[in-house]
Amino acid sequence: MRSVSKLALFWLISFILSFAILVSLLEVSLRVFYPQFQYPFPKGLFVNDEKLSYRPAPNFCGKIRHIDYQVEICTNSHGLRDKEIPWNEKKDVKRILVLGDSHAMGYSVAMEDTFSKVLERKLNMIDPEWEVINAGVSGWGTIQEFEYLKTEGYKYKPDIIILAFSSNDFIDNSNPREYTVYSGYRVSIDSLKNNMRRIKLFFAIHSRAYRLLAYIKRAIKIKIDNIKNKRISNNPDSQQENDMWKATESVLKDLFKWANDKNVELIFFNVSHMSEKPVSPPQIRYLCEKNNVIHVDYSEVYKIGDRKVVYPHDGHLNALGNKLAAEMLFEIIKRKFVESSDLKKEKLTNVLSTMK
Predict the structure, then answer these.
(1) What are the tens digits of pLDDT across the range 1-25?
(2) Which of 119, 154, 175, 193 has the fewest other C-beta atoms within 10 Å?
């Protein structure tokens, strides 16, 4: 009996040692050959904020390494992923402020390839007095974006606001305090609830092997969710989805009213992925129409082949996706604000000439 126990203990120890060696080899191999399997954001990119929960740290510079891309991400003195732009010193420029989450922040491409900067270059080709300010922050929902607008974004004195909206904003708006900053990293509040979750978080931050396994698990879950179509539906049939919609509807109404009271033009830019249903809920279209807000839907671009405009694993817009987004917005802004403004100037000039 004692020999059987010793044999069982021997095999148990052998299994544990073998498993530890395999995991160690996997960890070393990933660190050498696939360093992109690291925590999503570099340490220090985000800081806690009393009103916004968290925000990008000012004057930060680091690298994001992903299986699809490696990108340098830097912020200015106001914590925006943009060049240095002073508050209030607007002078004669026309300013567009872009609000949104990771799609607007564009951390999957170089700063100059974000749709904000591409749009700015295109506008300056026809009128050199445009500035497009990228105030997008990964993980923010519309509630945080509106709070930022009221407390800080308005200082840029924008003429136009572009609200980049994606389907996960429904979830973010129902839980705007979902994230916090812990040990220099942005993490979910849930990951800090107990010791077991803190241990998982430790490995998620420091272990490439754990990140790989988590990535595989997440990919499988997304496949299953897509098959089951577990998304926000056009006609929400659960209390949770109704709560998500009510929270989103409430903040959108407040944001639309704020823009109207401030005489700021607002563009609602829906960048939801075509697999995230609804691509643009009829409730939102109606809300935009009712409040004279321009509604732009990126879904038409996704339909031509989303694998061409988004990264295959990450799902965010690649450089081409950002370029097409900028072109779509450029056509709207040119037609609505540039050409109509030129026409008004021409009419005024003609009137003045007849008065001479």
Answers:
(1) 566 677 777 778 887 888 778 777 7
(2) 193
